[in-house]
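Bug report

Summary: structure tokens for Class I adenylate-forming enzyme family protein differ between web form and batch submission.
Environment: batch mode, default settings.
Steps: 1) Submit the sequence below via batch. 2) Compare with the web form result.

Sequence submitted:
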Amino acid sequence: MNETAHALGTSRTLWELLDRRAALTPDRPVLLQDDRTLTFGELRSRAERVAAGLYDMGVRPGTVVAWQLPTRIETALLSFAIARLGAVQSPVIPFYRDREVGFALRESKAEFFAVPGEWRGFDHTAMARRLGARGVFEAYDGLPDGDPAVLPAPPADGTSVRWIYWTSGTTSDPKGVLHTDRSLLAGGSCLAHALRLTRDDVGSIAFPYAHIGGPDYMVMLLLYGFPAVLFEHFALPAALDGYRKHGVTVAGGSTAFYSMFLAEQRKQPGVPVVPSLRLLAGGGAPKPPELYHAVVREMGVQLTHGYGMTEVPMITMGAPDDSAENLATTEGRPPEGMEIRIVDGEVRLRGEAVCRGYLDPAQSAAAFDEDGFFVTGDLGRLTDSGHLVLTGRSKDVIIRKGENISAKEIEDLLHRHPAVRDVAVVGLPDAERGERVCAVVEQPPEAEALTLAAVTSYLRAEGLSVHKLPEQVEIVEALPRNETLQKVLKYKLRERFAGTGGKGS
């Protein structure tokens, strides 16, 4: 961690961090998108004008402003403008529709709602009107504007709740997660210091800016003074031109992003898919060890993976100077100030990056133990070196005839199989066994279809205990994923295959 980043890290609020960075390097670029460039100085000055425009509309400190916008320079400007006012912002993933958006607007009591208008064939303005949203305004390529002279002083308190993020709803409503500027600054600082980046790097934001990773990444840019390329819609190979044009050195997002880059690399082995790239980094979903080794071996870049969630944006992170073994098999180490406690195999957390709880007081009460540790629901262990190894979700343990089986253990083994591109292992209801083990496999093009016999034979050879062997194998064209970090939606697999009888393939 360099001296400048250390000094900036003492900032109390996100706006103070931007103000201090803009004073240091006003002319250096911070956001790149297509042919547009925004400098640190322009980010501060333009965000103040947007803040003044919002003030003229009636936004005040404490006003709740929801926004559902794609990853664009305008989105970052609006978010910083809201932070400048000390208002409360509620980012909503742009792929959410009536049910999730309506829930977020009602629960947050949003007084204003920024939308992109019609975006990717969907009319967000019409949805907002349909939901009866208040203070609807479009903010895709035009933002409110005003004279900063009208603005009150910037917020000085970084510990008030000014952010409401939403967990991704699956079979139930999403939860409203309460964050402060300081909790987001702490999460972003962990990411920045672990990756050992410098002002000569060029990052990339290829995931929704409305995700908790948005401020995480912005804090890193502000601390170290380097830019990132924004991708409004990420898809390979179409996005590769943007990575190459801007000389991106650090890419990633989650495990699915690593896999997509690796698939592109395999089209032309030995020819770097992005010549300037030196590091893939991310989190948000389990990383099979074989994927780490394949990226390093075939792409010739380093891969560092971390562990975070909406409630705690950055918990641990692998560092580029970690051993290959730790980078492949662990989620890295926690930063200073993050306490990890393992209770009955479950990971619990305490530290500044932990959220203040949920909008629902009952959910908040259930989320923390008697010592103030946040109960994650993840299972894991700490190594002697302090690295965290995740072994699965408490809800992802399959109980077969009274025996606990880790889905992740089976998935990691199957990821090594050459006929497996991706896999999800789930427990399905079974009258005789309680649950049966089902492996749902996504295969590479032209691979020979895997059978149950082939899968169990392979896993036996890998040393998997007999009682953990799958009793069912299903081949799918593509595993169902969410639209944020491309996490596999296992509940959809359980719904789809629950009644298939366990005969396997």
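Above is the batch result. After comparison, the two runs are identical; trailing whitespace caused the diff. The chain has a mean pLDDT of 93. Residues 401-497 form a domain with the GMP Synthetase; Chain A, domain 3 fold (CATH 3.30.300.30).
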